[in-house]
Amino acid sequence: MFIRIVISLLVYHGFLLYIGWNLWKGIKAFRPDVRRRWLVVLSAGLLIAAWSMIFRFVFSEYAWAHWAAGIWLIFAYLMVLVLPLTNLTVVLLRIFTRIDRRKLTRSVSAAALALTVLLGAFGVFSAYSPVVLTYDVKIAKPALDGRKSMKIVMAADMHFGALSGPGHAKRMVRLINEQSPDLVLFPGDLVDDDIVQYVKQGIPEILKGIQAPVYASLGNHDRLEAGDTELIDTLEESGMTLMYDEVISENLPVTLIGRKDRTDPSRLSVAKLASQADPASPLVLLDHQPYELELAAEAGIDLEVSGHTHRGQIFPANFITNRIYENDWGYLRKGNMDSIVTSGYGFWGLPMRMGTRSELTVINVAFE
User: Fold this and answer.
1) What single string gives the DSSP state of each residue in 268-284?
2) Domain final position from 78, 100, 127
3) Strands (DSSP E) found in the chain
4) What order of strands is seen across the sheet that includes strand 283-286?
5) DSSP letters for 60-107
6) How many domains does the chain have?
7) Using CA atoms, how far apart are residues 207 and 237, in angstroms rounded to an integer?
8) In 3D, which of 121, 113, 99 has the Cα closest to residue 22?
9) 55 and 148 co-located in one domain
10) φ, ψ for residue 90 (rounded to 5)?
11) In this structure, are 147 and 111 located in the same domain?
12) CATH number for the domain including 327?
């Protein structure tokens, strides 16, 4: 374990050295007379920024600590994308052209800066400008109240806190209300690791504006300590019904089953939960992490809604989630069950998306 930590730290600081070297080269291209003391300033700034992620946990009650870590992660990610391309371009142009080295470095540095800004702006826009996706499903059972159809709005992975703040929450409430849903489902990761910023940013009062019944389950970032009911109490004060390995059908057109998160060793199996419900009723499962879809299908679940994957959130992580999960995003028919996984309304770590988009999911359900 110790050796792994040491290797990880060496790799991380090697990456910092790589960033610093490129930044210094770029500065020197525009200011060849810059003094070396600014190299010390640059190095110190990079080190402070690189360790800003610790601030997020040490000073979690302050929004600036979350933003400092988030901005650094955006910058580091963009450097991973842009710097290798920049270095390769310089090498190829030096081999195949006779452009003056300083002019070449200056031109490529300016292009790299422009590309970084454009990618950063696009990534932040993709995170804070959600789209609404619609799916149509059929459940071969009658609704409990006899209706022929219903509209569900589903959102997960909001990670409400300092980064996914009141503006993003108000946007979600507005989008939900515009859909006039019969039911709203939140399958996990409602808060960003703790409720400190969730409460300080005034999210509970904002979510009370949703004009439909809201049911939610917990995710791996909805940290619930043993015997601690503060998280559940706070979320329920936000106008939602928390389902913690529970089955609810009263005053509903369907039977809702909300599971504890996969990280909770005390959670019941989906078969055990489903056995508490009437199998003749439409069974809708809220399970944050979309693992073992076959077990849910075998238990008689008609519709499973999940999140967790973020669809990778940033390229190329989408290729990883696609390999890990049978359904990492979108719709999948599994036996007699429909699985719908959202890429998430919010984001985690860095307030940006690349190759994915924040989204709200509308599910039009038709009953037999």
Assistant:
1) PPHHHHHTTS-TTS-EE
2) 127
3) 131-139, 149-154, 183-187, 214-217, 241-242, 246-248, 255-258, 283-286, 303-306, 330-334, 337-341, 359-367
4) 246-248, 255-258, 283-286, 303-306, 337-341, 330-334
5) TT-HHHHHHHHHHHHHHHHHHHHHHHHHHHHHHHHHH----HHHHHHH
6) 2
7) 9
8) 113
9) no
10) -60, -45
11) no
12) 3.60.21.10
User: Quick one: 161 and 268 in the same domain?
Assistant: yes
Amino acid at 103: K
CA distance 126 to 146: 40
Is there a single domain that holds both residue 113 and residue 170? no
| 86 and 138 belong to one structural domain | no
- The one-letter amino acid at 174: R
* pLDDT tens string 286-331: 999 999 999 999 999 999 999 999 999 999 999 999 999 999 999 9
**How many of the other CB atoms lie within 10 Å of CB of 221?**
21
Contact between residue 345 and residue 218 where contact means Cβ atoms under 8 Å apart: no
Q: Are residues 66 and 146 part of one domain?
A: no
Contact of 226 with 196, CB cutoff 8 Å: no
Residue 67 has, within 13 A of its CA and on its CB side, a CA count of 5
Q: pLDDT digit string (tens) for 49-91?
A: 999 888 888 888 899 999 999 999 999 999 999 999 999 999 9
Taking the C-alpha atoms of residue 73 and residue 68, their distance in angstroms, rounded to an integer, is 9
Report the greatest alpha carbon distance in the chain: 79
157 residue type, one letter: D
Kindly state the tokens that stand for 354.
């690349």
Main-chain dihedrals φ then ψ at residue 354, nearest 5 degrees: -140, 115
Give Cβ neighbours of residue 101 (< 8 Å, ≥ 6 apart): 94
Query: Could you tell me how far CA 158 lies from the centroid of its own chain?
Result: 7
Tokens of 162: 């300092």
- Same domain? For 339 and 199 the reply is yes
**β-bridge partners, 184:** 153, 214
Do 84 and 158 belong together in one domain? no
* pTM (two decimals): 0.91
Domain residues for 69? 2-127
Alpha-carbon distances of 295 from 144, 218, 270, 334, 336, rounded to whole Å: 24, 20, 7, 10, 12
The closest alpha carbon to 150, from 266, 300, 282, 54, belongs to: 282
- Among 127, 158, 193, identify where a domain stops: 127
> pLDDT-based confidence at 96, cuts 50/70/90?
confident
